[in-house]
Amino acid sequence: MKYIFAICLSFYSWYGHAQQDPAKNGINFLKLDSWQAATTRAENENKLIFIDFYTTWCIPCREMAEKVLSKSEVGEFFNANFINLSIQLDTAKTDNTYIKKWYKDANFLKSTFRINSFPTYLFVNSKGEIVHSIETNFDKKIFIERAKAALNPETQNVFLQREYNKGKRDTAFLSLLIKSSQSSRDYDLITKYTNDYLLSQSDLFTKENLIRIGRTTSHSADVGFAVLLKHPEKVDSLFGKGYSKRQISLIVFDEEILPIVRINGKKKVYGPLMYGYEGEPNKNVDWRSITQNIERKYPDFANSILFDAKLNHYRATNNWGDYCNEIDNYIAKNRNEADIQFLNRHANTILMVCEDKKYMPRALLWSKQAIDMHNPPQPNVLYNYSGLLYNSGKKSLAITTMKEAIKQSGGKNPDYEKALKEMESGDW
């Protein structure tokens, strides 16, 4: 089976060229020999470094290069105020000598700055510290206005952190610091600053505070954890039903269960809602002992915590038999909570991750239930059902279902159309 996203070689060539040789009046991305050369030049010219991090497969990267970065008004501002770099963070067969020269530094910067989404736009000082970041925006004026904030020392993240270390704690300052710290991608610091902010609040249930709690609570010691635990309905009203339960389950897993189910287990955070686990899975887990501990500490949430923990472990150990058993048991006991999203999510896991096709028929049943819950069926549900049919040897019905997925997508979906062609040719 092939994943549904691919880019042709001509696109690789075009994008690498566009990023390194922008239009005449756009941003002038300098072709410096190394990151050291960039920081040295920034120090000599007393300027910040603006970095456009991109990949060859990134469609928004290409669109920003065409619609924003190559425009004269954008180039005029950025060229006057910054040392501009465009750095490719993947590799392609068509990479030229200059891009290859940057491979080592590109990997270093990707790791140092925790780059996990593209495009990423950072402003870095000559010491290699992130002082500001901006998001993708196809409005040229807004893109420039947001970049201007990088030039104000009093709103730069490094300045605000120094003020914090000196003891500054007023709520307006903390609010600004939290927002600024998003650019540094130090999520533990963001949580720390948010806890300080919430401790200063007389009412934790304002919309603003509930949003902060929902977005940043990541430890049982955080101020927001008690709100998730005792008032889940308040957070769920803003983030959706079951959000608090999922966050509690995740936090408890990280603190109570991860050290047991993985040898030297660690969680690696790549970004908001983006994380992975390190450490060799422990194949001899005492689930009885874990269950007793969780039921004692979190009786109201124990079932969901243990359910999520077991699925995580079974997936990590490729124990797809027990994974499917857990899903089947959950569906039998919690029919009202086994909604379309639940069924489709776990059917997709079997489709995309499980390499043993004998489990496809079980996931097919979940997928079929999801299809029957909505009329007409949702396109993404149909896509998963089609893939499961194909992997179960039912090619003809898989093709028919994929055509229906395209139809329910409005008659056009490049990813689904590509999958259909591959199924028809027997190469999916």
Describe this structure as you would to a colleague.
With 428 residues, the protein is an alpha+beta fold. Among the domains are: 143 residues, Glutaredoxin; 66 residues; 85 residues, Serine Threonine Protein Phosphatase 5, Tetratricopeptide repeat (Alpha Horseshoe). It is 59% helix and 10% strand. The protein is built from 22 helices and 6 strands. The strands form 2 sheets. A 4-stranded mixed beta sheet has the order 2-1-3-4. A two-stranded antiparallel ribbon has the order 5-6. A hairpin with a 2-residue loop joins β5 and β6. α4 packs parallel to α7 and α11 packs across α13. The longest helix is centred in the middle third of the chain and has 19 residues. It is globular, with a radius of gyration of 25 Å.
Mean pLDDT: 91
What spatial form do the alpha-carbon principal axes imply? Answer: globular
In the CATH hierarchy, the architecture of the domain at 9-151 is: 3-Layer(aba) Sandwich
Distance between the termini: 5 Å
Order of helices and strands: HHEHHEHHEEHHHHHHHHEEHHHHHHHH
**Beta-strand proportion:** 5-15%
Number of helical segments with 4 or more residues = 22
CATH homology superfamily of the domain at 9-151? Glutaredoxin
Low-confidence stretches: 1-23
Structural class of the helices, strands and pairings? alpha+beta
Q: Would you state the CATH class of the domain at 9-151?
A: Alpha Beta
* Rg of Cα set: 25 Å
The largest sheet is: 4 strands, mixed
Enumerate the strands of the largest sheet in spatial order, edge to edge or round the barrel: 2-1-3-4
